[in-house]
Design a protein that fits this description.
Two copies of one chain form a homodimer. Chain A is an all-alpha fold. Chain A is built from ten helices and no strands. In chain A, helix 4 crosses helix 5 (88-105) and helix 5 (88-105) runs antiparallel to helix 7. At the A-B interface, helix 7, helix 8 and helix 9 of A face helix 7, helix 8 and helix 9 of B. Chain A binds a DNA duplex through helix 1 and helix 3.
DNA sequence: ACATTTGCTGAACCATGGTTCAGTTATTGG
DNA sequence: CCAATAACTGAACCATGGTTCAGCAAATGT
């Protein structure tokens, strides 16, 4: 009985799986979630529409994989940035600025992944990304507050508010065009955010200037 | 030549026009924009699907009318609240708190009207609502800054950020449930917002406590 | 009551986009 | 090269939901 799925084939299959997700990501990056359609994505990946269904049970699963990938990368970048900071308040600033800088670099994709509703099933996945981001902020706010670096507060509420502030001003449909002024925009928003959470203006300015952003 | 469209008929037509929009509004309020579908809306309004097309050229126009109505009400409420305030900073606080309180009262509808994408054509209308809200905040921020009540800043950016903060923390999908704590939630967020814009903590607390919200 | 015009009905129609599947091609061990 | 199995193709299929329209009902002035 011939055809033993060989190593070579396994590699090609894995590459295709990745290629499909990459194609979906590119589509979302260009045209938002509405552009993530089976036939165009398949064409972009260089395969037929039907073939997509050999890799994903349905569109929902494909988009879920896409969102999970983005969420994974984003959370990792946030944690990495925060982990090298000298203290909890600095870590909070680093997380905020890293998110902001990355969002600005991939406006459309970030908006698609975080804010654009799709269907009921996928909302759960998108929501969990959003929740992870807000939770990350909430935890860092709580840590900083515990060290008396900022005011006591409802950290769930402020984490959520912080996320909304950043999304709307950076990647939302009426976010001002920041081309050429990315650094300044990120700093202004971080300043607003830190002050809002209870950091004195002077101190906040210091943090914003000190924090360096990762290149990628 | 009989049938001269009489006053009586005109009244019924106007009533129906309003009933259709009201039905659409109720649908959006219950199930978000996805629930605003011609057949269900028509049924809710007590008419046949086809009849909707005697009042609106297409679904787009119906939803546009719905959004414009909501936007009109909302902007009027904001301006009314701000107009009775004693000074520009107080007016800003009043606008923020009024928006927050009203949004909390109609969470789903507010989310649907402000944040839920629909189709490309309608996005323009939804965007103009969003832009009007952000602009209202921006103008009040600028007025307060001009009177040296808060720091100089990019008012377009902070107005947008403020709107995002409020939306996300109040009506977004991961806004914490505020049932029974509406007043406290509104106050906490207003505090964060005012501090973020550069009002000292003590002063901001004073404003938040002083500002009274309209009953409706 | 009647002619005339408008308004209403709702099932049929259509466009969009996800999903299926019979037919074809590719890969492997012997 | 051949048998066997998996992978791929793409046009047909289907579900959803907006839109149309032929037939019917209601309103009006004489």
């Amino acid at each position: 009985m011939p055809y033993r799925r060989t190593e070579n084939v396994v590699r090609r299959l894995a590459a295709r799986h990745a290629a499909i997700i990459a194609a979906a990501r590119a589509a979302a990056s260009e045209g938002g979630m509405a552009a993530v359609q089976i036939v165009p994505v398949a064409r972009r990946a260089g395969i037929a529409a039907g073939t997509v269904y050999r890799y994903f049970p349905g569109k929902t699963d494909l988009v879920a994989a896409l969102l999970e990938g983005i969420a994974h990368d984003e959370m990792a970048a946030l944690r990495r940035a925060a982990s090298v900071a000298p203290g909890p308040l600095s870590a909070l600033a680093a997380a905020i600025m890293t998110f902001a800088a990355r969002a600005l670099r991939e406006r459309r994709l970030t908006y698609a992944a975080i804010a654009e509703p799709i269907d009921a099933e996928l909302d759960a996945v998108r929501l969990s990304f959003r929740r992870a981001l807000a939770a990350e902020f909430s935890v860092r706010i709580a840590a900083a507050a515990a060290g008396s670096h900022l005011l006591e507060q409802d950290t769930a509420l402020s984490g959520t508010a912080l996320l909304g502030l950043l999304i709307e001003a950076l990647v939302g449909p009426l976010a001002p065009d920041a081309a050429g002024r990315e650094r300044e925009t990120v700093q202004s928003l971080t300043l607003i955010a830190l002050r809002g959470l209870g950091v004195a203006d002077a101190r906040a300015r210091g943090l914003v200037v000190q924090t360096t952003l990762p290149a990628a």
